[in-house]
């Protein structure tokens, strides 16, 4: 198996580890923007497309968000399947046209939202799909402290903190929007607030709230960069019970104290391996469409980037 990395940072390293777990003999290339890039064990640095000596089975795009579509366009023209780090872009310019081109070429694309492979969310997805419980309210909270994300560098210089590089908590924590749409579908109406007014003093959005309206209930999604002690939860108020879904501990506890689901030994790193196994299995068997295509994720991104309100 031959794999091309476009952009090689901390996220790419996680995808590389997943590949190593599954395909230890895979040959990995990294397309570098300039000579002198630090060598990475098990990765061949190249500086131009002409240096690819072998046919590439797929490419992993994990550049800063604002450069994603630049490379997806090139890969589409070359007919190379795309494993794209979320979100697909930071602006909507020309994305519908690119989506049409991908569809015309019948190119396999997958947007990497690894939390779909977290056991607690897979349990919740199966429960909601099978039991169809009456839901009155959903509250999603994801908050953490941006300076702790990459403690060895000045957080204000990283793309997450910079609006001009496609940063922002609504894009970094796109996972929450993705898995809520996976659990419940797209909302009929969405209202959002995005601000960058916290003590972090960054140009990118550091707080975002979304109210997603469904038939019978509303899902409220709160995201921030400034919570010191990280928290990632979903409160689901059913007709006769309330569940607190703790994503960081892979657990669901009912309001009564009953443990509904608990798998504490599962590592978040394993979601990357499960995700990569799913993707490589699909492209080897020509399975389409994939779980989360470019077109699927574009629908969510349009809601994510809305100015204020969108109705369907």
Automatic annotation (TrEMBL):
Matching entries from Pfam families are given as: GFO_IDH_MocA, GFO_IDH_MocA_C3
Instruction: Give all residue intervals belonging to the GFO/IDH/MocA-like oxidoreductase domain.
Output: 137-239
Task: Name the Gene Ontology molecular function terms of this record.
Answer: nucleotide binding
What are the Gfo/Idh/MocA-like oxidoreductase N-terminal domain coordinates in residue numbering?
Answer: 1-99
**UniProt-listed SUPFAM superfamilies:** Glyceraldehyde-3-phosphate dehydrogenase-like, C-terminal domain (SSF55347), NAD(P)-binding Rossmann-fold domains (SSF51735)
TM ranges are: none
Q: Name the Gene3D superfamilies for this protein.
A: Dihydrodipicolinate Reductase, domain 2 (3.30.360.10), NAD(P)-binding Rossmann-like Domain (3.40.50.720)
The name of this protein is Gfo/Idh/MocA family oxidoreductase
Starting at the broadest rank, the lineage of the source organism is: Bacteria, Pseudomonadati, Bacteroidota, Chitinophagia, Chitinophagales
């Amino acid at each position: 198996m031959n794999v091309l990395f476009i952009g090689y940072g901390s996220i790419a390293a996680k995808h590389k580890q997943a590949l190593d777990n599954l395909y230890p003999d895979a040959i990995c290339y990294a397309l570098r923007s300039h000579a002198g890039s630090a060598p990475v064990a098990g990765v061949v640095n190249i500086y131009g497309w002409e240096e690819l000596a072998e046919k590439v089975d797929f490419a992993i795009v994990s550049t800063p968000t604002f450069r994603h579509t630049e490379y997806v366009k090139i890969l589409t023209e070359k007919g190379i399947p795309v494993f794209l780090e979320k979100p697909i872009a930071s602006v909507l310019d020309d994305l519908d046209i690119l989506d049409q081109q991908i569809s015309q070429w019948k190119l396999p694309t997958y947007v990497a939202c690894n939390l779909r492979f977290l056991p607690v969310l897979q349990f919740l997805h199966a429960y909601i799909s099978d039991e169809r419980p009456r839901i009155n309210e959903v509250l999603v909270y994801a908050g953490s402290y941006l300076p702790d994300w990459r403690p060895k560098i000045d957080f204000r210089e990283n793309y997450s903190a910079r609006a001009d590089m496609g940063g922002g908590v609504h894009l970094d924590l796109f996972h929450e929007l993705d898995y809520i749409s996976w659990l419940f579908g797209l909302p009929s109406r969405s209202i959002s607030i995005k601000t960058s007014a916290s003590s972090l003093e960054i140009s990118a959005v550091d707080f975002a709230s979304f109210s997603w309206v469904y038939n019978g209930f509303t899902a409220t999604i709160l995201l921030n960069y400034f919570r010191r002690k990280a928290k990632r939860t979903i409160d689901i108020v059913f007709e006769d019970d309330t569940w607190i879904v703790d994503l960081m501990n892979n657990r669901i506890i009912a309001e009564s104290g009953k443990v509904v689901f608990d798998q504490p030994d599962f590592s978040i790193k394993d979601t990357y391996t499960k995700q990569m196994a799913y993707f490589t299995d699909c492209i080897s068997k020509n399975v389409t469409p994939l779980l989360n295509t470019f077109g699927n994720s574009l629908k969510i991104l349009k809601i994510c980037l809305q100015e204020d309100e969108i109705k369907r």
